[in-house]
Automatic annotation (TrEMBL):
GO terms for molecular function: beta-aspartyl-peptidase activity; hydrolase activity, acting on carbon-nitrogen (but not peptide) bonds; metal ion binding; metallopeptidase activity. The active site is at 286 (proton acceptor). It comes from Alkaliphilus serpentinus. Its main location: cytoplasm. It is found in: Cytoplasm. This is Isoaspartyl dipeptidase. Residues 45-85 form the Amidohydrolase domain. GO terms for cellular component: cytoplasm. Carboxylation allows a single lysine to coordinate two zinc ions.
Amino acid sequence: MMKLIKNGEVYSPKYLGKKDLLITSDKIGYIKDHIEIPKDFVEIEVIDATNKIVVPGFIDNHVHICGGGGEGGFKTRTPEIQLTDIISGGVTTVIGVLGTDGTTRTITNLLAKAKALEEEGITCKIHVGSYQVPIKTITGNIQDDIILLDNVIGVGEMAISDHRSSQPKIEEIVKIAAAARVGGMLSGKAGVVNIHVGDGVRRLDFLEKIAEETEIPITQFLPTHMGRNPELFEGGIKYAKKGGFIDFTTSTTKEFLEEGELKASVALRTLLDRGVSIHQITFSSDAQGSLPAFDEKGRYTGLALGKVASLYNEVKDAIIQEDVRIEEAIRVITSNPANILKLPMKGHVQEGKDADLVLLNKEDLKIDTVIARGRVMILHGDIKVRGTFEAAE
């Protein structure tokens, strides 16, 4: 059934004004000032978007879809994510990653979960690998995985400057990035290397050195957790001004913030004020990943769980509390990750693109309706589609 969204204020993310959108199958067919329904045309669903803002479906570029954690033993392994956890946060595209645990969480499990989420109605891609080096793959080769497996778009989450990493040498990172780059070139994919950056004093040193001393461009990397402490944040500003991309984790805890982690919404305002281009910045939730705390000796002291809902919450806080313009704020979870990850059908409200859309209440910016690949997942706050093993409330 075709769907017609009427009278919404559209941000592509560029502001387009009040428009009608016609969805044909899973694509945006037409965007016009006014689309009239023929009187004898009955097979069309009309969604009234009066007093609503229409934006692209959100892209969460870092989610532990199979669960993560385990830093406190087997009982702290976090659970797999469910479909409603994702769509309730307005997210229609997810990038799945492993984390600290590349043993009991496997790449084949990650790929299977990605395919399951796609069968349930959203778009899901993955990175191969985990914190550890050598990188664990499916075919036995990074380049082959990216070229031959549709869901695989890059490598990650590989850890540096962290006591949980395998302490890779710079030469090893160069070879990983080179394989990912060539795999991406030959398949038309991004071949991005997603980098977990820890509290270590080396911070981004390896990535900057690679960009300066090899042919690998700085844009081949997407370092994340860039707000975890003031020193890393300052380093991230310098890194971005050299042309690099920087990603900020939206899931956090009160304790982390008290210890110096920078709230993502505040980070965005500060970055813009400091002259960093909006196009260099992304947000991700780190959902289903553990948020472990360690004492000064590196001993585990407890953990919390990342949530997809935090992704848009931080964007909303940036708009409402930090006075960031809507069309700039939503870029960090729409067009920016779409461009960086080479997802050409995502991240924009545009004719011919995938019909991934979120309707927001104009008054309070709360999520009202979520449409993924042309299918209404949430309508006026009511969840219409649930995961295979999720019971309706």
